[in-house]
Amino acid sequence: MTDRIPAVPRKAPTTLAGTVTSLGNTSGVANIIMQLSLPAVGEGVSESRVTSGSPRRHPVKRGRTTGQYLALAVMGDDDDRTAMREAVAEVHRHVHSTPDSPVRYSGNAADLQLWVAACLFRFYLDQYTLLHGPLERDQLDVLTRAAQPLATGVNVRAADWPADWAAFEAYWAGMVPRLSISEEVRRDFESLADLSFLAEAWGLPGRLLSRVAGRTYHFLTRGNLPPEFRALMGWTWSTQDQRWFDRALRGLRLLDRLGNRVAIRMVYRLYVLDFRVRRRLGLPVLGRLKVSDVMVRDGGDQRWLARRTTRAR
């Protein structure tokens, strides 16, 4: 564990927006690993045929739509969230198991969406506590209640979201024994963590970006991941790794003090504005839905540049 000593006294956050830090820019894949470690969620994503929302086909678009979901949960209103819920449900309608799937799943299953929402809550909570130290139980109770829209923004009923931190801890502890990662899903995670998935979307430019930044991003992903999830991935974490990660945290704290947190919250506001403009113009808020007959991992809707680069290797 890292020494989580705040550099300066801070007022405890009372909203998820208050937990946003520069560290969140480095922990996205770590949180995806947490979400997809529940087998039904992981296999659902691994077997997906929805190419329009895949980071392996449209990484920028996927980043936007994920960012918009989070922004609406944090800063949107009930009307925004209802529209997003309907759009997400339509996409998830095409995510379901087949007779050949290793586990049964449905993209609209409320129990699976509750787990994903719980992981998203950890996305906010962990980035804050890693940088600025632990929070008191009453502060965690406030944030647990504030995080409810992460769940009710999909098919989870408000009554099913943990009422306080103790209930959240109990839910989390009950879920951890159910987690496992298949070899197929583990390969997916590795390609996300080292950015090699970008080659599938962008061909040679994506491969070059992976070579330049992939090793660093893989390290930061491992650092952001709680130990039990690192163990599921078979990843090691040494004392020297922790020292390097602590140095990275110090740099990110400095970025926060220089105003990066304000910039990130501004991006959230722009996501909300973009969502509302799309609705006003009658545009699909998640973009045009495209579903392939072939799984994305098996080459469904592979883009021309990526196909050409793959043949040239």
Blueprint of the fold:
Layout lengths: L27 H9 L2 H8 L12 H17 L2 H15 L17 H23 L4 H10 L1 H5 L12 H11 L7 H11 L4 H5 L1 H21 L2 H7 L5 H19 L2 H21 L23 H9 L1
Helix pairs in contact: 1-5, 1-9, 3-14
Give a brief rundown of this model:
This protein is mainly α.
If you compute it from the alpha carbons, what radius of gyration comes out, rounded to the nearest whole angstrom?
A: 19 Å
Number of strands: 0
Main beta-sheet strand count, sense and barrel state: none
Q: Terminal Cα separation, in Å?
A: 41 Å
The helical percent reads: 55-70%
SS-based class: mainly alpha
| Helix-strand string | HHHHHHHHHHHHHHH
What's the pLDDT, averaged over the residues?
A: 93
Low-confidence stretches: 1-8, 308-313
Residue share in β-strands: under 5%
The coarse silhouette is: globular
Number of helices: 15
What does this structure look like?
It is built from 15 helices and no strands. It is mainly α. The protein has a domain of 202 residues. Helix 1 packs antiparallel against helix 9 and helix 3 crosses helix 14.
Tags for this model:
disordered N terminus; globular; 61% helix; 15 helices; mainly alpha; 313 residues; disordered C terminus
